Amino acid sequence: MNGAQALLHTLVNADVQVCFSNPGTSEMHLVAALDTVPRMRGVLCLFEGVATGAADGYGRMASAPAAVLLHLGPGLANGLANLHNARRAGTPILNIVGDHATYHQRYDAPLESDIHALAGSVSGWIRRSARSRDVPADAAEAVAAALTPPGQVATLILPADVCWSEGAQPATPVRSRPASPVHDSVVESAAAVLKSGEPCALLLGGGATRRHGLEAAGRIAAATGAKLLCETFPARLERGAGLPAVERLAYLGEMAAAQMTGLRHLILAGAKRPVSFFAYPNQPSDLVPEGCQVHVLAGDGDDAAGALAHLADLVAGGVAPPVQQPSRPEPPSGPLTAEKAAAVIGALLPEDAIVSDESNTSGLWLAGATAGAPPHDWLTLTGGAIGQGMPLATGAAIACPSRPVVCLEADGSAMYTLSALWTQAREGLDVTTVIFNNGSYAVLNMELARVGADPNSAGEAARSMFDLSRPDLDFVSLAQGMGVPAGRARTAEELAAQFGKALSEPGPHLIEAVVPSVF
Amino acid sequence: MNGAQALLHTLVNADVQVCFSNPGTSEMHLVAALDTVPRMRGVLCLFEGVATGAADGYGRMASAPAAVLLHLGPGLANGLANLHNARRAGTPILNIVGDHATYHQRYDAPLESDIHALAGSVSGWIRRSARSRDVPADAAEAVAAALTPPGQVATLILPADVCWSEGAQPATPVRSRPASPVHDSVVESAAAVLKSGEPCALLLGGGATRRHGLEAAGRIAAATGAKLLCETFPARLERGAGLPAVERLAYLGEMAAAQMTGLRHLILAGAKRPVSFFAYPNQPSDLVPEGCQVHVLAGDGDDAAGALAHLADLVAGGVAPPVQQPSRPEPPSGPLTAEKAAAVIGALLPEDAIVSDESNTSGLWLAGATAGAPPHDWLTLTGGAIGQGMPLATGAAIACPSRPVVCLEADGSAMYTLSALWTQAREGLDVTTVIFNNGSYAVLNMELARVGADPNSAGEAARSMFDLSRPDLDFVSLAQGMGVPAGRARTAEELAAQFGKALSEPGPHLIEAVVPSVF
């Protein structure tokens, strides 16, 4: 068989079952091979950023890599922003980039560019297959590399002739390295810190924000009085009624500082040392308070949940973790605001929902409003590259076809990768998207003042750069143009009726929630 | 003044008048400075690929750089594909990328990534300003670098603190190097080749596809019998009634080979040696026929039009160039096809139009149908990275506000950067977009067979990767959702009526031309 066919056989044997694709001529043999390997599901995306974001959503929920199929350097470039978010999330992704035939590269044809340089900015592993018969083994290693804890983007560059040439045979899967167990002495030293009686917090990230890690952390907090925090933008946070509640570190540095005031010890479990998202004049980049010592219980690639369980056994004995009690907001009424929209969502969020949250400023009240909803997963914008939410929801829905997916999306961010809706319609995915349409890049209204730009000199020209009205975006028309049923809500009652109806029906829906800007 | 203000003053003094922007927090001081430098026009784009493609369109028409303002590595990544096309077009662009404050970079905040690696893939010049007072001189050099013949992407990376710190003063413009004159001996040797009587062709590219180069080349061809060809995807081709006609080298290698059959000499004037766009099994990458000698009259950065004028003086004495006679296709009727759509466009194309052509397979008949239309500029997809057409039209309309812009756009390509329509609506740009909606990536239907994929094994799964129906894209709804009036044409008469009306009214319009697929 040819390299392309052997590749797909190798991937399905390694449990890579989905390929989010936006192919071109140099990938035609890979596309043709889909018919010879029906266990591989090709999912067409109309833009590469949708494909890579969907692979991120799939990987976060399946804990297994999806493949992405991209077209040369420019196709990879279009997919980079969401691969950047995936890199920050520690998501396993097999990123396949088709290239010109090996002998064609030196002619500098129009699409030739430096694929390796682009891939290097997001990948933990890169290889270019040189011969058809190398492809299967390279692919098996790529899958294992993608799964290397905590998970990473593995980029496999496949020249066209390497795919179309015969002489390849499927390779057997390569076992991936498990998460590294944390040494007893590290756990014991954290236990000593917790028992010191000094003010202490646990900061959870990575795998520690799933049920097992949270329960262990909850026990530790209950037994020792340590504060429980998780990173600002967790890749996947399990939360809701019956799970231990954890406070997310605030986006704004001064609010994060307030959360950590008075701490003498900060124990990191799968999280990085907290830093300010952006720099601001005369504000610290490092958010750890003075006099607070930082202890790494589990770093990147370590078994953070296992370390927390061990630590809980040392300091919390038979203590059970306190859990969030069920509670729902009262259904609000009247003209819609971001706060009321959050209450509607909290009142109706279905059990086992997957929430893709890119609501930005309009999402300010969501955490509170949904805290006591039935258990659900919350996926956030890990790398700050907007345009993640709708692709992420798409991939999550493919990974978990029996779970309802809710995508909470800011208007400005939605416009980056809107064609995810088309893929949702084509694949019949059960995704309910709520667009918070406040007619602006509201976060920049806030940031303009925070970075110290003179509000007297920043006038109409500056503010027009945040203004998404003139003309208004009509997300109902945009969704319908891609085959997704849609409606507009201007009151809390309208949102509740439309959100409830969308959740009760299969397939994708979109609701444009018209809200005033928070800033 | 601060670095940002000094930057904008320096740019407007260097005749950079437009900044296509998609800013974020790290660019807030640059945005704030817009109000202190009102001569700089900020144009908001909802996606970075729109901003970079618009700068390409602006630069091709203005022969002067626009600035682009992007947000860190991920923002640059989103803009790379159209910067790739601009690189291939030799378009001057000042690419400004905001970065974290200098002291913040080492904290590896979520948006941190390798900006330099990304910029390197498309830029001819890169610099990171280290201090506020360096910004103006760096910017002046960047503008000169962008204008270095034939034109290139110059990337200036500006850390946030370098923009917000005081102590900068505007810099005076730096003179850019002009195109290199071609040495007499090179011109004389080309003249000898032309006079040899052996079969010869001129292949024009770069600056040689504008009126002066074409007229000189037309004289040479008339006097010597040399064949007149231009590169497959010229950045800007002046054509139509009253201009010398030039045949574009075909996209398909075998057709290009046929155009060059029997040649003994190929003289390159601003064009590269012709190579196949993609590699195909058992097809040559190099398209120059055996026994044909290649002569470089003018390479990258040389004054190709000047060299042609000199050459014409040597071989064509007082010969006048033969020019295209005016002619328009008969207005067709009945159900619309791509061929009839081309005839409608040829019948109605207004004088002095700028055509942004990303019609791909549906555009097969456009060259013939518009050959005798009133004089116009034709802009093509130079780098093969689809999603160029609508941003390019946007920037061209800003560069040339008194000229009608016509954007001929394939359905699949349109979906990459569709939000260009919103910027057209906001800025009131006179752009008439015709979407050729054939419900497929039709070029891939053709390429699948051409790369030798077995049509028996490539079945439903493969073909679904080219299928843009299920669900159908409704471009009328999509355009209306971004504030652009739109209609749908299913017959030639409907297209003619709507196209004529759109051209007669100011502001943007979109027509969805429903056509069967050519392949």
TrEMBL record, chains A, B:
Gene3D superfamilies, A to Z: 3.40.50.970
Domain Thiamine pyrophosphate enzyme N-terminal TPP-binding intervals: 1-106
Signal peptide residues on this chain, from the entry's feature table: none
Domain of life: Bacteria
Database matches in NCBIfam families: PRK07586.1
UniProt family annotation: Belongs to the TPP enzyme family.
Protein name as it appears in the record: Thiamine pyrophosphate protein domain protein TPP-binding protein
Taxonomic classification: Bacteria, Bacillati, Actinomycetota, Actinomycetes, Streptosporangiales
